[in-house]
Amino acid sequence: MTTQRDAFGARLGMWLFLFSELLLFGGLFLLYAVYLARYPSDFAAGGQQLDTLLGTGNTLLLITSSLTVALALSALQQGRRQLCQMLLCVTILASLLFLTIKGIEWQAKFGHGLFPGGAELETLPAGQQIFFSLYFVTTGLHGLHVLIGAALLLWTLGLTRKGQVSAENPIMLENSALYWHLVDLIWIFIFPLYYLLL
Amino acid sequence: MAKLNDRGFLQASNRQPLLFDWIFSVDHKRIGLLYLYSVSAFFLVGMMLGLLIRLELIAPGPTIATAQTYNALFTLHGVVMIFLFIIPGIPAAFGNIMLPLQIGAQDVAFPRLNLLSWWLYILGAFMALTSLFSGGGPPDTGWTFYVPFASETPTNVSLALLAVFIIGFSSILTGVNFVTTIHRLRAPGMHWGRLPLFIWSLYATAWVQILATPVLGITVILVMVERLIGLGLFDPARGGDPILYQHLFWIYSHPAVYIMVLPAMGVISEIIPVFSRKPTFGYKAIAASSVAIAAAGSLVWGHHMFVSGMSDTAIMVFSLLTFLVAIPSAVKVFNWVATLYRGSISLEPPMLFALAFVFLFSIGGLTGLVLGSASADVHVHDTHFVVGHFHYIMFGGTGFAFFAALHYWLPKIFGRMYNMKIATIAWAIIFVGFNLLYFPMMLVGLHGMPRRYYDYLPQFQNLNVIATVGSWVLAIGLLLMFVNLYRGIRRGTAAGNNPWQAATLEWVVTSPPPEENFSQPPQVSHDPYDLQQAGKP
């Protein structure tokens, strides 16, 4: 049986899958909206305890890494494989740095007893408990997606080195980059909702 | 035993052990058959559980099961039938086999992803079955997993939820695959106005699978995390709201009803014109109504929650939207009936099942309106009326369409014909048994018998006995049907390439289809129901 490469089809499939990812997070944003309407002052009090500096740093990291992965694709299409691989490495490093900073943030919250089931959290007003539960679930699920995205990019890097992803056949890198942009996009919503608006 | 000259894609390759030849095959026809065998097996499991439920209800008080066992029985019956049989039943089994054949493609867009979907499905099924025998015992929440009970019961709910999540993921991947296939792999001349109506229904279904299933995914994740570390997101004591769980659950699970029934409608739309020897009436209306049902059906989830606690405005809106879904559904029924009108009808087994579908689906649909109108719903909510209505749609609808598809397409897939006379007898027994089983449920529900209890008041017994006897009749008919089909595919006479003289593309290739569907891409030159052109691409 002959297999035909259909780059357009592969991209279409990836976009469809990304829709489903958006709706996965959509459920959490829905909960956020309802609970924000119910506990506006508790949410504000919770939001002020988040570290805006670290959040901003992470936002800059993700946006920059979205740029580097897009540049990596351009480099590949121009046949500059060395540059492409270097840019991919930068993207993966940025993702690891993001997770490290997220870890530091969580660590600080855990230190104050602010984690689901934590003694400190249970003494807070109901609305703040909800806020932190949502915060941990949302950023946790997002962090998982960062990890998956980084693994995907690492795999693509390997394929690029072997020449299986190339200027003639860049679809794997295109799709990994699309996935990475999604991870970025979701953070672009999480950041203002949790760190800035409240 | 009649010999077939060519076993097509069923022919063993001898390159590796036979089992590996199947479970690692990326051929859409083999994957479709793997699904067909799996969903049929789980149907039998679910059927046994259903028989046990009915046996328990033959008399008031504990008959064969304690209250706890009964709770586990109806939970498992629901989980197995919904997630392992009905949702993947028609799209993943018949869709996989027929989608590329009907649009003139060699395979689906992502064959390896297709195999992954099946493996995820099997993994999920394995976990669902494991949850019965491990941890705190079989889940007892009902298939809806409502909180707060689902986050507090000591039974093995977490594993069952994980299973649901994985099966949902498999369903999303199938949806992605089908939408891409329909967009990219149609043969020359197969433009959108020539797509068989089964393909239109698969297309609408696939979109619902992609867009609705993730919401179920996040919902079950939240309940799992709740059980694991206690988030309190649905716990009123900690500021959460259990009603929100119900919203999230039904945002998926109501559209899921259309994942279950749309492909079934597609099957019926294929069969009715062929056995009326007439082009389908209102092709465009049927195709558009599939998409309309998928779209409108995504906005009506609140009608499951009329008594859960919603504002009157919300109830009015959801009730109105629910009535609106009845319009595209009725468009389909009227078009089917108009196709029958003055047709040359031949009552062969696929047609009998299809006609039964139209009849039973209409009863299910009309009783659905009773539930959709908020004031009537308050009276029958959570009674056996709901159980009866639901089974008229899901079993009388999707189940009968699945059987119709079996009788319509198995001769194509295996190249052999079953015994028509026995198939007709089995159909009659199934039809009688079905109505004996489910119609009394609606009556006893109107009298006020609640669902999901192992016990009931003595005045409900007569109707319950009739229903239980009906379940036996139904089971006999089903067994007869399956045995007849099995004997057919093993030893039946050669069916020929186009036993029903249908005009869609799958009938152009040999029966069974060759490993490579089309030696060259077919040039499609006629509409799918232009029966004068039967057998030509």
Structural description of this entry:
The complex is a heterodimer of chains A (198) and B (537). With 198 residues, chain A is mostly helical. Chain A has a single domain (28-196), classed as Cytochrome c oxidase, subunit III, four-helix bundle (Four Helix Bundle (Hemerythrin (Met), subunit A), Up-down Bundle), CATH 1.20.120. Chain A has seven helices and no strands. Chain A has helices spanning 7-38, 40-48, 52-77, 81-111, 119-123, 126-162, 171-196. Chain A is elongated, with a radius of gyration of 19 Å. The mean pLDDT of chain A is 93. Chain B is an all-alpha fold. Chain B has one domain (18-533): Cytochrome c oxidase-like, subunit I domain (Cytochrome C Oxidase, Chain A, Up-down Bundle), CATH 1.20.210. Chain B has helices at residues 18-23, 28-56, 67-103, 111-133, 149-152, 157-184, 197-229, 242-276, 283-297, 312-340, 349-372, 374-380, 384-414, 420-446, 461-491; strands spanning 416-417, 493-494. In chain B, helix 8 (242-276) runs antiparallel to helix 9 (283-297) and helix 14 packs antiparallel against helix 15 (461-491). The A-B interface holds A 1-2, 6, 8-10, 12-13, 16-17, 19-28, 30-31, 34-35, 38-39, 42, 116-117, 122, 125-127, 129-130, 133-134, 136-137, 141 and B 27, 106-107, 109-110, 113, 172-173, 175-177, 179-180, 183-185, 210-215, 217-219, 221-222, 225, 229-233, 238-241, 244, 247-248, 251, 515-516.
